[in-house]
Structures are given as C-alpha cells and as structure tokens.
Amino acid sequence: MKTPPRLQPLLDEGLIDDVLYALMSGKEASVYVVRCGERICCAKVYKDAAQRSFKKAAQYQEGRKERSSRRARAMEKGSGYGRQQAEASWQSAEVDALFKLAAAGVRVPTPYGCYDGVLLMEVVRDADGDVAPRLNDISLSAEQARRDHQTMMQAILRMLAAGLVHGDLSEFNVLQDPTGPVIIDLPQAVDAAANNNARWMLTRDVDNITAYYARFAPELAATRYADELWDLFEAGNLDPNQTLTGVFSKTAAAVDLDAVLQEIQAASDEAAARRERQQHPSD
Questions:
Q1: What are all long-range contacts of 207-213, with beta carbons under 8 Å and residues at least 24 apart?
Q2: Is the pLDDT of residue 146 over 70?
Q3: Are residues 43 and 10 in contact, defined by beta-carbon separation less than 8 angstroms?
Q4: Which residues of 42-54 are buried (b: 16+ CB within 10 A; e: fewer)?
Q5: CB neighbour burial string for 12-24, b if at least 16 within 10 angstroms, e if fewer
Q6: Angle, helix 225-235 to helix 142-161, in steps of 10 degrees
Q7: What angle do CA 231, 93, 66 make, to 5 degrees?
Q8: Sign of the CA dihedral 130, 136, 142, 145?
Q9: Beta strands in the chain (DSSP E)
Q10: What percent of the chain has pLDDT over 90?
Q11: What is the pairing mode between strands 190-191 and 39-46?
C-alpha cells in the first residue's frame, strides 16, 4: 500500500520496514499494521488536534503533571509552542499509561515506543491469528459474559490501584483474544487522585462495561462495582489482588447535587456518543 506521510519518517529511520495495510481509521487516530524486522506491529498515528473530535479534553488533562515548568506555562497560555507541547503530552499519555498498566498486570497491548506521534505496539490477535475483534462485534454466552465481566472489574481495580482511570472505557475499546478481554485506547487516561472528574469517569467506565455484559447475563446490571471500587480507593484500602464482590452498602450521606447533575450530564453525553458510534461503526 502507499505509505502514509506520517509513517514515512519511521521508514526512513529504519524503525519500521514495511506498511502492510490499514487496520482502522477513527476520529482520534488511524491504525496500520506494519512490519518491524520479523515482528508485526500496530502503528497508531494520532491525528492533529484540529482534526480530532474528542470532546472536553481539558477534563481529561486536569491533574497531569508536566516535568518542565516552561512547558506547563506555555500550555496554559495556549501559545503555538504550548499547543505543540499539549499535543505531545496527549500522545505520550497513552504510552505512559500502557507501560504503567502492563507493569501492574492489566491486559493491554504491549507498547514498543512512540516516535514522532506514532505509537508502535503489539497486534492483539484472535485464535486464528487475525486481528482480535472489539467486544461490540462479538456475542457471548451468559457464562462467558459473567466470567469476562469479573475479569474486567478486576482489571479496572488494578488500573485504579495503579492510580489511573481509563476515562472512555466501553465495548468499543476492548478487544477479545483467546484468553479474554484486552483494554485499548488510553490517551485520555486520568490521574485518579488529581482529577476532580475521576469518580464519575470511573462510574461511567464501569457502567458502560457492565451494560455490555448484561446483554448476555442480565443479572450483572444489579451489581455496584463502581461504588465498591471508589469506596476502597477513598479509604486507601485498594489491593490489586483482592476479589471484588459487586455488592455495596453504605449509610446514606448528604446528597452532592453538583456531582449528581454532573453524572447525569456525563450519562447523557455518553448515550449520544454511543448512538453516534452505532450509526457509524467504522469510526
């Protein structure tokens, strides 16, 4: 195939040897299957900020720490240099999250590195050696849905124990390989302790995943993993190896109206986004 312009520098530098085919093109990035020596990899090419449609990016970037005070000031001012640095920060966030989560035992594609806005990582495959499907493209038995749902809740626990919330988790960014679900698409991952939106993002992640598996095992809809997870997090009692129950009971406290309204708006936004994805599945 014709080499995409953004991949040409990697070919020139010998970081990749051949572009085999385009895997998918979404609103945030395009993904290609490439050859690096004898290894077949995915090359995720991030789109420029002007081309992306990811909404409310500032909510996701809240709490991210910049090592350079000069970069941080430029990003706050929105200068040309600052916009470049913000873009680099957005791209590096996924690489950092992948390495961190892989080390924490979360099933994510193995990252190999990020070069000039291109993330090289493992190709997740199905039992036939083809690229693994997204959850949205498969059906499950009730038994497998219960098992994989528990696996995903434990994965979210491990993410939270590592200090991260995915922030955009759904059946559209989880792949299914022969041994179970693999989490992908992490440029918007947030710092659970430093981001004021972390709790409702975690709740939305859990609710999205639970709603998917509840299609096949309806009783899962009654579980309360998000409340259980956040309660453990706030209490400082998170153990990445503990077994979650999905059961939660706590004495009612004063209602935080702002938080309730925020969650309602987030749910409305997610429902609209879900409808758009279903109408345009190729994205």
A1: 207/267, 208/169, 208/170, 208/171, 208/270, 209/149, 209/152, 209/153, 209/156, 209/169, 209/170, 209/171, 209/174, 210/149, 212/135, 212/136, 212/170, 212/171, 213/140, 213/145, 213/146, 213/148, 213/149, 213/152
A2: yes
A3: yes
A4: bbbbbbeeeebee
A5: eeebbeebeeeee
A6: 20
A7: 95
A8: positive
A9: 18-25, 29-36, 39-46, 111-115, 118-122, 164-165, 174-177, 180-183, 190-191
A10: 65
A11: unpaired
The pTM (predicted TM-score) of the whole model is 0.78
Query: Residue 187 and residue 95: Cα distance in Å, rounded?
Result: 8
**For the ranges 74-78, 130-134, 182-186, which has the lowest average pLDDT?**
74-78
Token duo for residue 194: 């430093």
Tell me, letter by letter, the H, E, C secondary structure of 189-215: CEECCCCCCHHHHHHHHHHHHHHHHHC
Q: In which residue are the tokens 């999205």 written?
A: 208
What pLDDT score was predicted for residue 79?
60
pLDDT in tens, 166-206: 999 999 999 999 999 999 999 889 999 999 999 999 999 99
